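Worked example (supplementary).
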Amino acid sequence: MSEFLKVSSSPHFYTGESVPSIMKGVLISLAPATLGAVYFFGWHAAMLIVLSIGSAVAAEALCQRLRKVPRSIDDYSAVVTGLLLAFNLPANAPWWLAVLGGVFAIVVAKEVFGGIGFNVWNPALAARAFLLASFPTIMISSPDYPVPRGGTLSGLTLDGVTQATPLQLIKNTVAPILQNPSAFSPREVQNAHAVLAQTGQWEFYRNLLLGNMGGVLGETSAILLLIGAVYLFVRKYIDWRVPLGYIGTVALAAWVFAGPEGYFTGNPLLHVLSGGLILGAFFMATDMVTSPVTRKGKWVFAVGCGLLTVLIRVKGGYPEGVSYAILLMNTATPLIDAYTRPRVYGAEAAGGK
Amino acid sequence: MVKLATFRGGVHPPEFKDATKDKKIEPVALPSKVVLPLQQHIGAPLELAVASGDAVKVGTLVARATGFVSIPLHSPVSGTVKSVGEALHPSGVSMQAVVIESDGQDEWEPGLLTRRDPESLGVDEIKKIIRDAGIVGLGGAAFPTHVKLSPPADRKIDVFILNGAECEPYLTTDYRQMLERSADLVAGVGIIARVLGCAKVYLAVESNKPEALAAVAGQAKGREGWQVVTLQTKYPQGGEKQLIEAIAGRQVPSGKLPMDVGCVVQNVSTVLSVFDAVTTGRPLIEKVVTVTGGAALNPGNYSVRVGMLISELLEKTGGVAENLGKAVMGGPMMGVALPNLEVPVLKGTNGLLLIPEPVPESLHRACIRCGGCVDACPIHLLPCDLALLAENERWDRCRELNVKDCIECGSCSFTCPAGRNLVQLIRYGKFTVMSQDRAAKK
Ligand code: SF4
Ligand code: SF4
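After joint prediction of all chains, the assembly is encoded as:
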């Protein structure tokens, strides 16, 4: 017996957490929102989710076989990517869009870089950016954008205008009127003010929280996403600094810069609860691989995401901003890591560095 | 709630101390033979003082110290020197060792044991006694104790810390000794504080050992300038640098020693060895060892002669299960996996962890950059990056990222969800960089 003892480096035991257990945790946390998506948008949504996950997993298996590296599909990371990608699709997206996105996310945004751990961008977001650039009509401005069960399209009512999400409605229709009222008819100005008045009402926020409003599959109901986020915190799978820093920055910057009538008149709650911010801040910006490893770095990353999101929403061409903000900060992550390296132990006592 | 003293970083491994924490320290029957590797300390090698065939008694000098950073080695049994040659060291390498066969008489070297009143001894006399008794730091590093107690004249030591943290899971030797020998322990601390001439003395114990805290506090009552500190239960709270940060609020800079920030730390077993040597003349020939783990048939705390083979120790204390997979000398976080059970207990041995099959193994997947290791590292390094750099043999970058400061505590590997062998890789980087630096100096 004694000749056969195992010898290996210390330590000799581990936490028991593993990459698969973390990924499974993320899947569990996304379950409420997944069920919500199927409830709000019906079976077509379920099909998109299944196709997106299936194509991501299949693509990963194939890539790893071609690259002749040990297969790591059992770590569930491709499943997470597929699900998050589906969350970013409109409910009426054609089936091939989900497949194309799933394959792009894994092949171009993950395996090309060397697989899990080496990718620069969050694969699901990279795929969304690709789809948005290639098929903008399907991704945002489709006239038959699906209405969630029991809701209105944008959550706000405005005569004769169809806009998919509240942010789109406000950015594309309301804001131009309010900024230059003399160019519009009195009726249009009146309508714009009516919309603005709705954003001051509890009714509107209840819809945002519950999901009675237009949007992509995963971002309609803030509550369902938050339930999942609580689970992630309890299991310590995400660092609170990222969502807190991100959402806090968006709220503050929206209040200061996003007001229709000048500085400090913006509506922080509107910006926090609508669009993909909750989804992005809790489930995408927290992606371990593509965000900084140090605590200081996480703050920098989060605040950067927040500022960019508001910048894009207020000044950019898209009413949304979350995905591009996160992708840009993903790009900056190696740099942030390099500049937020922890201080050398004892540097203060030594009086240097 | 009172805020407990601690450091930044670290992990919270499960403790697993229940199996042995209520087991009294039991003396183990005399070994039939002992194997004494000459290198049991950090520092200059020893010079043999016996030859094959010599008769020895308990406490007879087996090897002499050479130089200041060196300590002598004594026979833990009476009997005959059977051989002097190569033997397997617990680290897995063969090195010079003296093998002594016991005659079972346990007869002491005449004149060695003498009762002394520490108060009547001068500081230099005490340091000499400590050195002659062959005492090393028993917390793991095995650095000669008298050296730590002899700071150069320009280093003023103002803080002494008794390290009663025992933060390694499973181990309970310090805990039992704090309970069973609290009076001797506190007297030993008094001796060391006098040698150092320091004003502030801290007795530091982790919050998960309230009985030990009470026992130590009871003995220390009424001593001017002494303070009992409750430490947060966290690993590696008992690391020297971490203790100093927690208690004195000072950080030992990169490449410096505790004495450079005016602190000296000694652990419980070391202080008791000092007490024994100073008051009775007893050299360091016996160790308290926690035998524990899922494959230990009779877990407990045992008082063992140095040099006893692990196989005989287990035979005499109740044995080991058939399904033993891995035997670790020390605790699970920093202990060394033994090549087999035919290796001796060393001066620095404080535990024997017997892990049954199936042995937990690291998977070594790709790093997912979760940052867990960065948060855990008590030295504020970037273990994920260092491991990758060492893997790619980027020694210059390893040096820039202070690989030499790693204390090999294992917190990073313990946390890593990708199961990466971080400590192993970083240790490889550390040793390579250190030997490069040494070569450059020459
Ligand atoms: S890098 Fe070294 S000091 Fe830091 S946690 Fe790992 S083993 Fe401990
Ligand atoms: S704990 Fe492991 S997976 Fe996480 S950053 Fe460190 S090395 Fe990478």
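Two points are worth noting when inspecting this output. The CA atoms of residues 15 and 322 of chain B lie 24 Å apart. The pocket of iron/sulfur cluster (ligand 2) is lined by residues A 293; B 367-373, 383-384, 415-418, 420, 422 (CB under 6 Å).
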